[in-house]
Amino acid sequence: MTPETNTMTPTITGDTILKVEHLSMKFGGLMAINDFSFEARRGDITALIGPNGAGKTTVFNCITGFYKPTMGMITLRQGDGREHLLERLKDFEITKSAKVARTFQNIRLFSGLTVLENLLVAQHNVLMKASGYTILGLLGLPTYKKAVGASIEKAKYWLDKADLTDRADDPAGDLPYGAQRRLEIVRAMCTGPELLCLDEPAAGLNPRESAALNTLLHSIRSEGVSILLIEHDMSVVMEISDHVVVLEYGQKISDGTPDHVKNDPKVIAAYLGVEDDEVDEVIAVELEGGDR
Amino acid sequence: MEYFIQQLINGLTLGSIYGLVAIGYTMVYGIIGMINFAHGDIFMLGGFAALIVFLILTSFFAGIPVALLLLVMLIVGMLMTGLWNWTIERVAYRPLRGSFRLAPLITAIGMSITLSNFIQVTQGPRNKPIPQLVTDVYHIGAITISLKQLIIVAVTSALLFAFWYIVNKTPLGRAQRATEQDRKMAALLGVDVDRTISVTFVMGAALAAVAGSMYLMYYGVSNFNDGFIPGVKAFTAAVLGGIGSLPGAVLGGLMIGLIESLWSAYFTIAYKDVATFVILAFVLIFKPTGILGRPEVEKV
Amino acid sequence: MAAPSENTSSGLMVKAVREGIFAGVIALGMFILYVGIETYQDIDNRLVWRTRWGLLAIFVAVAAIGRFLMVGVIKPHLDRRKLAKAKSGILEISEEKSFFHRHFLKIALIALLLYPMASVWLFGTQGSLKYVDNFGIQILIYVMLAWGLNIVVGLAGLLDLGYVAFYAVGAYSYALLSAHLGLSFWVLLPLAGILAALWGVILGFPVLRLRGDYLAIVTLAFGEIIRLVLINWTDVTRGTFGISGIKKASVFGIWSFDVGSPNYFPKAFGLATSSAYYKIFLFYVILALCLLTAYVTIRLRRMPIGRAWEALREDEIACRSLGINTVTTKLTAFATGAMFGGFAGSFFATRQGFVSPESFVFLESAVILAIVVLGGMGSLTGIAIAAVVMVGGTELLREMAFLKLVFGPDFTPELYRMLLFGLAMVIVMLFKPRGFVGTREPTAFLKERKVVSGSFTKEGHG
Lengths: 292, 300, 462
What we know:
Largest sheet of chain A: 6 strands, mixed
Largest sheet of chain B: 2 strands, antiparallel
Strand order of the largest sheet of chain A: 6-7-8-3-9-10
Number of helices of chain A: 13
Order of helices and strands of chain B: HHHHEEEHHHHEHHH
Subcellular location (chain B): Cell membrane
Number of domains of chain B: 1
CATH class of the largest domain in chain A: Alpha Beta
Main location (chain B): membrane
Shape of chain B: globular
Low-confidence stretches of chain B: none
Oligomer: heterotrimer
Strand content of chain B: under 5%
Helix content of chain B: over 70%
Low-confidence stretches of chain A: 1-11
Distance between the termini of chain B: 52 Å
Mean pLDDT of chain A: 79
Protein name (chain B): Branched-chain amino acid ABC transporter permease
Distance between the termini of chain A: 58 Å
Helix content of chain A: 40-55%
Strand content of chain A: 15-25%
Keywords (chain B): Amino-acid transport, Cell inner membrane, Cell membrane, Membrane, Transmembrane, Transmembrane helix, Transport
CATH topology of the largest domain in chain A: Rossmann fold
CATH superfamily of the largest domain in chain A: P-loop containing nucleotide triphosphate hydrolases
Membrane topology (chain B): Multi-pass membrane protein
């Protein structure tokens, strides 16, 4: 554990779980993220939206440690008040100690392992400790056996939530697309996160699968887990999120409740692809509309 | 100083040979992403073809000019290995393309074992010596340069130029580069991918045959086992230079040649191969894609 | 030329003949120099040549006829069968497994336990030597090595081309430590394993962040470095001469197999003096070591570390996103695999009584890797079958003295051993790219243990 974790004076107040400050990420000469700041509140579903290539996934990769940001500070505050500077942690430590879990835009399951095994791998760190780093587990100590029982119960719980109990013993690669998405999400949940980052969870789902996903996300939120999600589809975002941050060309253009963002002329311009000087016109139209 | 330059010349000669073999590795790796373990043995086959042609020609035409002799050796060797590599790709690699990644690697190792043992069985396990083909030596001060060395460097440079031209300036080369970038897309755009890959194997084999003939001329001896060590070193050269990169393969080959001759000259000859491998390990640890390789971006 | 109706038999025959001729021409081109011409040294030690047209004709004929049969007879036959199967609409999945199939492991274990006794009974004490040593012990050593490498390649998906290095570390650890410190086999066996594991960590640490083929080439390089050091560090290793007179293993220090010793094993049991008893003892030792390897592998697969290895093979990035420290996970796989290589190495040293760098060439690594892949990565049963087929099969060639009667007295079947081994590697891969057993057993289940088809499992990138 890094010394910053405990000794640092709290920089985040109240119910903020994640605070991103002045984040910048440069690839070669390209500024993918430019001085980007936002906060996510505990228990909320925060959505990060923006047109293609706005840098949403890059922000995600910075938060979850897959990229090291060029500049900026990412602070995570756990429920017990401990704080972590995510940009200083390695990717696996972010999940292991800072309790941030993530999914991927192009689903990354262990396709040759069964659904149940996928969920057990996600409980690696807990089980590792319980097995005394393998050595005690080889001897078959009861504490390890108990931990294994608990891990299977946890897996069963999430299988039920994701409506995958019937497929538990099938290889993950054999599941239909929507089920693979849900499995990836509950697999992330099995790491016991406080913040769950979802990279376009609704992409490519049919309406029925979308509905199943929404149910799953709501039940995750009701467990008290905060969600940060990237989404492309505005309608999905507006429906489920509490707070929306809009990103364009690596910069924040809007931040607020879904209603606020929906009516933000800059957002409309970004999504409709209007020239800068036309934005004023759009605003004018909006104002007129507001008068009525 | 003279001693150093002398070693430099020896190293460059050896490095040219490694570079030629390394190109075969790097091209095949670039285009289908597999380590063609049998390539070292293709090099050995090339050497044997040259050896047999030499024996036949000198027994029929005793006074044949050396230049003509060398030319025929090279051409027959290139045809021979081209045919072999073409067949090997057809029979052992193509059916496994797109399958399990380790499967072609295992068939390649199997082919390597098969080829060297095939030569052992058909031509015998003993060293095959031939008389010196080219004996002229030039002295510049205290430095000695043999005509052999000049021929090797000249032939290598000429071939490299021809090769660079093919890859960069001809439709065939364009097809190769396209296939390397994205096989499916190339096929959709009308590139005959199978043929392009076959041609790549034939070209790589032809260069290996030249290297094999040069090796025979330089050392005057062939053995069925000669594929392995030069093969591994050439592969090392390809990785060192950045696998997939043609200039990298040549650069890597020259570096390996230099490391070997300089190490032998200034330290102990016993550990020259250890030195090569240790340097390889260090380069890969600190710059995993080799000297001229494109950096690999991890896609999340 | 051939009519568009290639499915008619005459059209097929024309095609087959054409392909056959083509194959013959290609074969002629390929073999004309290497088979048609023989180079040899005459009495003056000068290299000369003679022709072998007869042999060349055989090669060409085999290629042409083989291709003709393949295109004209075998392939249509296979296609017809496939078509018939598709038409009948019955998927061939037999739920009923035969008695033999269900109890395969038990039967195999009992057969192995009885094997030395059976060969003594069948061939006499002295006659059993060949069967126990050349076949039994030899195959079991490869089984153990392949099972050890399986942890690295099959489970964790890390391509290791230098596994033989750990085998060498184990063998030399035993040879040197028993000579200098006089420790016994049973003390040095675990020590050799630990030393090999240590080397696994030392070599693994810097290279494990490399991926795929880069890792393969660096492990190959390390394998060669260790071998070259063994050759050149003559003060310690005696170079290419090797170390001989390595102490034999004893029956846990109670009975010895040194003929002069007072508690010489056959004497203690009133048996005639024979080296066969030592070999039988060694057979059981290596069998026990193999079983240990299998047991540990099976147990580890069901533990978090084993699951993490398999997850690593499937998707490394996903592993990292789940909080798994991939570096230590890879290192443990490397070290565990190396440890079993070390055990096998020290056993090899005590069995041979002699070690030299000759035994630890790249070819050995390739053979072990081939056994793992041919068997089916991750499958212990498949790997054991592959070891029996590949090692036993080539070992069998030594026994084929009757071939001398067919091919003349100059014919030495051993010469063809590695040639056939190489060809077999190619052919097995072509027909079974995922190895003999391509399926995967899940390590945990809720309702039923369903076998995972090979088409889902990945082979790793590192």
